[in-house]
Structure formats: structure tokens, C-alpha cells
Amino acid sequence: MNVGGYRDVLAIRDTRRVLVLGLFVRVPMFAGMVLLTLHVVTALGRSYGQAGLVTAASTVAVAISGPWRGRLLDRIGLRRTVGPSIIVQVACWSIAPWVDYAALIALAALAGLFVVPTFSILRQVILRSTPVEQRRTALSLDSAATELSFMAGPALGVWAATSWNTGWALFLFQMAAAAAGFAIWVVNPALTSAASSSEGSTRQGAELGPAEAPQRAVRGFITAPVAVVYLAAAATTVVLTGTDVGVVAALRDFERPESIGWVLALWGAGSLFGGLAYGAWHRSFSVFWLLGGLALTTAPVALATGVPSFAVLITVCGILCAPTITATVEQLSRLVPERSRGEMMGWHGSAMTAGSALGAPFAGFAIDHGGWQWGFLAVSAVGVTVALVGWMISVRQAGPDDPTAGAGPTDSVQGVPTGSLEH
């Protein structure tokens, strides 16, 4: 384990700057998501189900916009993509807190369609600014920052909703998110290397190495190996959102609903620890191995007999959350040409959003028909199935002459497999 790798990553100015900027971008974004629900329930006097419809409209719009916004980043650059988005965000969220329910749904959806593609931008900068051998460490650090933002954002949102009028709280946090988008516009970090801009895809062969082979592609870069990584990303969020629902159902069954907050915090802490450990590890692992491990450590949570054992098992299953998400981005960066990374990250975000949308109702259906234990078992089965299918497809597509065929741990510097599975 090389903890010093984090020092090397933070020594890179662009990487360090974008990691700090990511905190300012994500905290108000996560706070705004919670505030939107609380505003619908309290200020508008609607049900949680109706609040969920507003969130769903925004989420679907974001999922639709991901590839489109990412493609614009590739074609016309950061400022010409982000500038109109900021204008739309300010316009929508200046009006949305003061309108009725139907208008709020429409404005939330419109804002979602023109959302600033912050996750795509930040990770593109990380991929561009860090050497290949340091990407896993840098992406793991970004995942850790995301976890911290996810812990802080909702807490700040709830505090603001209880301290102020929810309309004003929603307005202020959404304006803060727009201001963070404006900061990205001002900084205007380069998304691709100079070599990529001048030479197109010529440089990519050296970066991707022998794993890059001619494949039948959709939209220029979505080959079968790329598609199964997107499937793994979706399956990862199926497992995560299903686990989220399972935690609530289990603690209600244990008659300890007041423990939901700190148990979820333990789950997040496990993910934070796992992400930092994976970034410091001296080898990479295939996303399909990590997804399989995530699914297999989620299933035993169903064996918990009370809150203490449940808390321990949920912390353990959290350890592979961040590493699995990190591995999806890292593996895609090796498979997709640099000139298409904006769209690549857009599809990645859409895949994860789709998994989130499917995971909660799927786990809820299993819980309704078999108890809280089946929520964990059902999403675990999805994760294991996708991991096996993805591994088999990636091995078949790699070809017999590909030294990266198989899966398993790879040397983090050379990218050459040292085990039996692909990088």
C-alpha cells in the first residue's frame, strides 16, 4: 500500500485545484436535493410521494442530459457548454421556490436538462492532469471527497430547512451551486491534453496499450467492453440504492428507526475507508471483481439479528462501494479515446442514475414480499449476475493475443495483469 501516492497526486496543481473545487460544487448540490423534497412536503403541503415525483422528474432529466452535455464538452468546449447552463440554472431556481407544485415539476425538469455537468468536468480534468499510473489514486481521492460532500450536504440542507423558510433555503443553495458552476467557467480547466487536441486519437494507442483492439462500436466508442462497464456502473447503484432502502426497512423492523442516521453514516464511513485504501493499493482490480465483491459482502447483511450485528455488517459491505465506482471510471478511461471522454462520462452518469432509479423500487418490491432481508439478497443477486456476465464478455472480447485478457489485479504502473483477470 502506497499512502505516499496521495501526496504525489496532490502535488499536481490542476488535480489539487479541481479536488478542492469539487467540494464547493457538490456540497450545495447534495443539499439542494434534500431541500427540494423538504420544500414540497412543508411549504407546499404535499405528500412524500408527490415530493418523490419532483425528484424523479429532475433525476430523469439529468440522466437524459448526461450524454448530450458530455458530447457538447467534447465538441465545443467547457465555457460554451457551461455558460448557457448557468443562465438556465439561475433562471429556473430564481422562480422555482415561489411557484406551485405543477410549475415546480416543470422547472426542476428544465433545470435538470441544463444541469452543469460538474461530475464529468471534474473527472475529465483528473484523467487529463494525472499520469496513467496515478489515475486510480486520484479518482479514489475524488470519491472520498464525494463521500464527504454527501455527508455534509444533506446535513446542511436539513439545518437550513429547519432554520429558515424552505423556499429561501432552496434558493440560496441552488444559487450557491450556480456560483460553483460559474467558478468552473472562470477557471476553465483544460479537459484534454494538448496532444489529444492536435493529434486526435493518435496518442490514445500509447495510453490504452494492447487492450485497445478494433471493435464494433455504437456512437464511435461504445464497444461491447465499454457497454458492460456501463452495465456494471448501473448494477453498482442498484446495489447501493437497494441497500439504502434495506437499511431503513431493517431498522424499522428492529423498532429502532432513530438509528437510521448513524447506521447510514457507518456505511458511508466504510465506503470512505475503502476508497482511500483502494487508491493507496499497489494494484488495480477489474470492475467486475469489485462489483462481485460488493454484491457478495452485501448479502450477509441479511443475517443480522439486531442493530449491533447489522451495524457491523453494513460497515463491512460499505468498504467496496467507492472502489467499485472508481474502477468503472478508471476502466472506461482505458477503453475510450480522450477526445470522447465528455460523452463517456455523460453516459456513465446516466448509467448510474438509471441504476439508482431501478434499485430502490426493486429492493422495495423484494422487501414487501419477503421481508427486509430479501432487499439485500435481491440486489446482491443482481450485482453477482452482472459481474459474471460482464467478466465473461470482457474476456471474450479481449481476444487470445491480448495480454490484458482475463481479470484480476494489475500492476498499477505497467498495467500488465499479474493475476488471472483483466485490469
In short:
It is found in: Cell membrane. Residues 169-423 form the Major facilitator superfamily (MFS) profile domain. Helix content is 75%, strand content 1%.
Write up what this structure looks like.
Residues 169-423 form the Major facilitator superfamily (MFS) profile domain. This is MFS transporter. With 423 residues, this protein is mainly alpha-helical. Helices cover 75% and strands 1% of the residues. The chain has helices at residues 4-10, 13-42, 48-76, 78-95, 101-113, 118-129, 135-163, 166-187, 194-199, 204-208, 224-253, 260-280, 287-298, 307-318, 321-335, 341-370, 372-398, and strands at 283-284, 410-411. The protein has a two-stranded antiparallel ribbon. It is globular. The protein starts with a helix and ends in a 12-residue tail after the last strand. Residues 197-214, 400-407 and 409-423 have low confidence and may be disordered.
